[in-house]
Specification:
By secondary structure, the protein is an alpha+beta fold. The protein contains three helices and eight strands.
Length: 143
């Protein structure tokens, strides 16, 4: 009887090692760095892009952080940051709400994932960002 008790005790401790485990915070799949891929002919971000100075923009990056803040970088020729905006994001009823701090612009839109792509918008009115693992251009551009 004692042997069965010890075996059960060891099994319970090994399977439910709550004393040694740290609680994991599960990050939302949107957290990370996203590089602009393409867009439809009309989308909500046109308002924001039309407000920026007309300089050559070669690419854009969104960096969604787990603390519900984001950075939006507009990168120009020679990896120079043309404009850098920041703000906050949150999920609201299966949509993402994006609020910029630097400009008066707020967006509440659908989002979904296809493979490595993050699509902001719905149906044919959307903008596509692809997972960006290499941040060399942003790091270089900040210097």
């Amino acid at each position: 009887m004692k042997n069965i008790f010890y075996i059960l005790f060891i099994l319970v401790i090994s399977n439910n090692n709550s004393f040694a485990k740290k609680t994991k915070t599960i990050q939302h799949p949107i957290v990370g760095t996203w590089k602009y891929s393409n867009k439809t002919s009309v989308n909500e971000f046109e308002k924001l892009q039309n407000a920026t100075p007309k300089q050559t923009i070669t690419t854009e990056y969104f960096m969604f952080n787990s603390d519900k803040n984001f950075n939006h970088y507009f990168i120009g020729e020679n990896d120079v940051v043309v404009k850098s905006l920041c703000g906050s994001w949150k999920l609201v009823d299966n949509k993402i709400q994006i609020k910029y701090n630097d400009v008066k612009f707020e967006l509440l839109t659908d989002f979904f994932f296809i493979g490595n792509d993050l699509i902001l918008g719905k149906t044919f009115n959307h903008i596509v960002f692809t997972t960006a693992n290499n941040l060399d251009n942003i790091a270089m551009a900040k210097k």
